[in-house]
């Protein structure tokens, strides 16, 4: 068999050149796809809400159940309020649901709420009031100016540790100062009732 002509050898050489270029390109692509890598992961992210809860030691009983009142009579009752919250918050006291058979009686029951330490529902013995207590006000006034959390008094800032306690003392007087005998007699056989509420709200983190 005769050897390829010079022209044939040239054609073969030219045809082989693109193959060699493509092969070299493939090697370059494979090399550039490899790289050093590193990563870090912060796994298990989640968000759960805290809780607020409030209890007291009244054993389901009304704090005040005074009957057969006479002018000038007084009384008091303490209540241990316990926070079960695991987030910071604030407790405030206020009144709701004032009802009276004679509205004039509500104007003459003067009521004062103080917060402090010492004492229980059974007895206020040992109670020591914190500074800054507001003066006594009539139930009529209280039901107007301390009627919800926003207007509540006796504020207690809780740290968010379940089991925190604060003692509140409520004291009252049947005050007939400045009334005529006829006005006093008109209050006989009258009745007034009101709900005392302690509410805990979690603190505003933007405040």
Produce the secondary structure layout.
Layout: H1 6-32, E1 54-56, E2 74-83, E3 89-100, H2 103-106, E4 109-117, E5 128-129, E6 137-138, H3 139-145, E7 153-158, E8 164-174, H4 181-185, E9 192-202
Antiparallel strand pairs: 1-2, 2-8, 3-7, 3-9, 4-5, 4-6, 4-8
Structural class designation:
alpha+beta
Oligomer: single chain
Q: What is the molecular shape?
A: elongated
The total beta strand count reads: 9
CATH fold name: Immunoglobulin-like
Secondary structure: helix percent: 10-25%
Question: Rounded to an integer, what's the Rg over CA atoms?
Answer: 41 Å
Low-pLDDT stretches are 7-31
What structural keywords apply?
207 residues, 6-stranded antiparallel sheet, Immunoglobulin-like, 3-stranded antiparallel sheet, 32% strand, elongated, alpha+beta
Entry summary:
The chain is of the alpha+beta class. Helix content is 21%, strand content 32%.
């Amino acid at each position: 068999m005769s050897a390829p002509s010079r022209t044939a050898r040239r054609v073969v050489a030219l045809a082989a050149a693109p193959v060699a270029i493509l092969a070299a390109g493939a090697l370059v692509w494979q090399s550039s796809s490899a790289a050093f890598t590193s990563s870090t992961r912060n796994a298990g992210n989640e968000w759960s809400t805290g809780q607020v809860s409030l209890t007291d030691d009244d054993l389901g009983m009304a704090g005040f159940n005074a009957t057969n009142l006479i002018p000038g009579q007084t009384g008091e009752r303490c209540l241990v309020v316990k926070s079960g919250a695991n987030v910071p918050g604030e407790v405030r006291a206020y009144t709701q649901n004032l009802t009276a058979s004679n509205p004039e009686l509500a104007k003459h029951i003067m009521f004062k709420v103080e917060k402090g330490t010492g004492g229980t529902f059974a007895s206020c013995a040992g109670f020591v009031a914190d500074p800054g207590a507001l003066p006594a006000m009539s139930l009529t006034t209280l039901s107007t100016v301390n009627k919800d959390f926003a207007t509540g008094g006796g504020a207690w800032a809780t740290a968010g540790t379940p089991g925190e306690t604060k003692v509140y003392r409520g004291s009252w007087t049947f005050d007939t100062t400045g009334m005529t005998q006829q006005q006093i007699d008109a209050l006989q056989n009258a009745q007034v009732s009101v709900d005392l509420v302690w509410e805990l709200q979690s603190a505003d983190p933007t405040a």
